[in-house]
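Chain X:
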Amino acid sequence: MIDIELTVPPDLERLLDELERRVKNRAPLMEKIAGIMMNAVDENFIHGGRPAWEPLKYRDGKPLQMSGRLHGSIHPWNDNDSAVVGTNVVYAAIQNFGGKTRAHEIRPRHKKALAFGGRFARKVNHPGSDIPARPFLVLTEADYEEIRQAILEYIAGNGE
């Protein structure tokens, strides 16, 4: 059996120690990635989707931007092992993925009857709605490339 002993020069040993420290402490990198993902979601709202979301059928304006509540509810979060962007708004999932709402009854909240089209009713049976997918929690290839670059810079010591 042959044993080979390698003596690592001090500058290389220092670089390897630094790499080990960076690999163990990933929180700064995860914070950067969460920021990149947050910027991507902002871009999705600014551009009306990437690719463009299906337009609205029953009113004018940009989809998902009537009140700004959904966009304003999105926040980044990170720890040492993960980077996340999300929302706690109840209707976010059906807007992002699309789907069909269940049939339900509509009743007036503050009046005795509903009024529409010159007619009045105490209640209306709604058949449910088909909601097209308008993915806002998605990344483009350019966003993934920015994340790749951030990882490479972090490992090289340029991204901290």
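Chain Y:
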Amino acid sequence: MHFSVGFLVIMYLIEGVHSLVEFTNFECELLDRSFCGVEYCRIKSMNRTYKYLSLKVNLFKTPVTDVKVCCEYGLYQRLNGYKPFLYNVTVDACKFLTNQNSHPIFKFIYVFFKHVFNMNHSCPYDHDIIMEKVTAENINHHMTKILPFPKGKYMFKMHWIAYNINRAIIRVYITLT
């Protein structure tokens, strides 16, 4: 009898455990410094459990009318190095922001950032690009409830292309526990 009560308690506790997203690194690599500059690209830790990402990109050649934001965006899982896990496609940001239902997978990713990102309108862009305080909470619900991902280490890699020239690469590293 003690075994079955203990087993039920353990099963209840396991059922109560849920996955958690944690940021482990954030990298911004500029490929064309004459086109844009990064004022800041940081992961900030407020305490042991609360971290957020912030980014500010200064555009030097405005207005920008041809953008493929998150072009060749991909999600990579760490398994003996980072291996492609989900998608690796190119999306025209100007067209997507005009009709967000045109690309459902990109819309799933865009939801993570749209409330903290000033690139939430269609082209042209005549201002700096700012993304402030993306918390793991923004991502946690989508990666654990809406489209559950297996536990592990992931890298979300975005190539930012303007006028068919790769201008920057952004990498967000997360752990799903």
